[in-house]
C-alpha cells in the first residue's frame, strides 16, 4: 500500500514549533525576528504568494514588512530599497518575489541582498556555501523536500536518488543537499537520455520539471519513494486544477509519494519561516534549540 507523505501536516507541525520558539525568544530577549518581502508589479500569482507569506509570518509572531512597488520601478530604486533593508536591524530576512518585470536584472537584485539575510538562499554566497558543505541559507523548496525524506526514510546514506530538473531554485540545491546526506545522486534534465531506466534503478525520485504526468508508473520501482515538486495548472472540461509531475494514478506501487497539492507545496513557506529564524539566530548568536535541531 502506498503511503501518502502529508506535507501539509508536517508543515503545520514545523510552523507550530517555530511559533513556540519565537515566543520563547521574545520572552527571553525582547527581540523579534523580522522578514521583509519585496513585490514588484502586479503578477497575480506572486501577489497571492506574498499575501500568504505575510499572513504566516505574522501568525507565528514574527514581524512582516511587505514592500509593494509599482511595475515601473527602476533597477536603481529597487537596489536602494535593498540597501536600506540590508542595513535595517529589525529585518533579519529579505526576499524578493520572483519573477521580476522584464526590465529588471534578477541576478543583480539577488546579488544585492546581504547573504546573511538571503532567506531564499539564491545568493551566490549561499549557493557556494551549500556546494562546499558549509552553513548556508538553503533554498526553501529543496530544504522542505529533504525534511520530508528524512522524516519518511531516516538515514538516507547510500540511497540511489534521481533528481529530475537542474534549476537553481530546486533541482541543483536538492542534489547538493542529498550529496551531503551521502546519497548517490543522478541529476536528470530535459536532455537526459533513458530517463525511464534511470528512474527504475532509483530508491528515491525527486521530480521538479514543471511537466504534468512526466513520471509514469512503470518508471517507479516498487517500494520507491517519490517526491513530486511540480505545480502545474491544468484546464479540463472548463475547470482548472493543480497537478504534479507524476502520473499519480499509476503510482500505486510506490512505497510513499507526496500528493499535489498537499505535499511539497506547504513545506516551502514553512521553510522560509525556518530560514528567517535561522538568520535571526545567527545575527544575535542565539543557539538553535534542541527542538529546532531535530
Ligand atoms: P525550471 O523550469 O526552472 O526547471 C525545470 C527543469 O526541469 C530544467 O532543468 C529542465 O531541464 C527539466 N525538465 C523540463 N522538462 C523535462 C522533461 N520532460 N524531462 C526531464 N527534465 C525536464 O523549473 P523550477 O523552477 O525548477 O520548477 C520546477 C517545477 O517545480 C515547476 O512545476 C514549479 O511550479 C514547481 N515548483 C514548486 C515549488 C513548491 O512546491 N513550492 C517551488 C518551486 C517550483
From TrEMBL:
EC number, as in UniProt: 1.5.1.5, 3.5.4.9
CDD domains in UniProt: NAD_bind_m-THF_DH_Cyclohyd (cd01080)
Metabolic or biological pathway: One-carbon metabolism; tetrahydrofolate interconversion
GO molecular function: methenyltetrahydrofolate cyclohydrolase activity; methylenetetrahydrofolate dehydrogenase (NADP+) activity
Protein name: Bifunctional protein FolD
Pfam families from the UniProt entry: THF_DHG_CYH, THF_DHG_CYH_C
GO cellular component, one term: cytosol
Annotated binding of NADP(+), by residue: 165-167, 231
Catalyzed reactions per annotation: (6R)-5,10-methenyltetrahydrofolate + H2O = (6R)-10-formyltetrahydrofolate + H(+); (6R)-5,10-methylene-5,6,7,8-tetrahydrofolate + NADP(+) = (6R)-5,10-methenyltetrahydrofolate + NADPH
Ranges where the Tetrahydrofolate dehydrogenase/cyclohydrolase catalytic domain occurs: 5-120
Function in brief: Catalyzes the oxidation of 5,10-methylenetetrahydrofolate to 5,10-methenyltetrahydrofolate and then the hydrolysis of 5,10-methenyltetrahydrofolate to 10-formyltetrahydrofolate.
GO process terms (BP): L-histidine biosynthetic process; methionine biosynthetic process; purine nucleotide biosynthetic process; tetrahydrofolate interconversion
The keyword NADP appears for this protein: yes
Ranges where the Tetrahydrofolate dehydrogenase/cyclohydrolase NAD(P)-binding domain occurs: 139-283
Protein family per UniProt: Belongs to the tetrahydrofolate dehydrogenase/cyclohydrolase family.
Organism: Paracoccus sulfuroxidans
Amino acid at each position: 500500500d502506498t503511503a501518502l507523505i502529508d506535507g501539509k501536516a508536517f508543515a503545520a507541525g514545523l510552523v507550530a514549533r517555530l511559533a513556540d520558539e519565537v515566543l520563547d525568544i521574545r520572552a527571553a530577549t525582547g527581540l523579534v525576528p523580522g522578514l521583509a518581502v519585496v513585490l514588484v508589479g502586479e503578477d497575480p500569482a506572486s501577489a497571492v504568494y506574498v499575501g500568504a507569506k505575510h499572513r504566516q509570518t505574522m501568525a507565528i509572531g514574527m514581524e512582516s514588512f511587505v514592500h509593494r512597488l509599482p511595475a515601473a520601478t527602476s533597477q536603481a530604486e529597487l537596489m536602494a530599497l535593498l540597501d536600506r533593508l540590508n542595513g535595517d536591524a529589525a529585518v533579519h530576512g529579505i526576499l524578493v518575489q520572483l519573477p521580476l518585470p522584464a526590465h529588471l536584472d534578477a541576478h543583480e537584485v539577488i546579488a544585492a541582498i546581504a547573504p546573511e539575510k538571503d532567506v531564499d538562499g539564491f545568493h551566490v554566497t549561499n549557493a557556494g556555501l551549500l556546494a562546499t558543505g558549509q552553513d548556508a541559507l538553503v533554498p526553501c523548496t529543496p530544504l522542505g523536500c529533504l525534511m520530508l525524506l528524512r522524516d519518511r526514510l531516516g538515514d538516507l546514506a547510500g540511497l540511489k536518488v534521481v533528481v529530475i530538473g537542474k534549476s537553481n531554485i530546486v533541482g541543483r540545491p536538492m542534489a547538493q543537499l542529498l550529496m551531503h546526506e551521502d546519497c548517490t545522486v543522478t541529476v536528470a534534465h530535459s536532455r537526459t537520455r533513458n530517463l525511464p531506466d534511470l528512474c527504475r534503478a532509483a530508491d528515491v525520485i525527486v521530480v521538479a520539471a514543471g511537466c504534468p504526468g512526466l513520471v509514469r508508473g512503470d518508471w517507479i520501482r516498487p517500494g520507491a519513494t517519490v517526491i513530486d515538486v511540480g505545480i502545474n495548472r491544468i484546464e479540463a472540461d472548463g475547470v482548472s486544477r493543480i497537478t504534479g509531475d507524476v502520473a499519480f494514478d499509476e503510482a500505486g506501487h510506490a512505497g510513499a509519494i507526496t500528493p499535489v497539492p498537499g505535499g511539497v507545496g506547504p513545506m516551502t513557506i514553512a521553510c522560509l519561516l525556518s530560514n528567517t529564524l535561522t538568520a535571526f539566530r545567527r545575527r544575535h548568536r542565539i543557539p538553535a534549540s534542541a527542538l529546532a535541531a531535530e
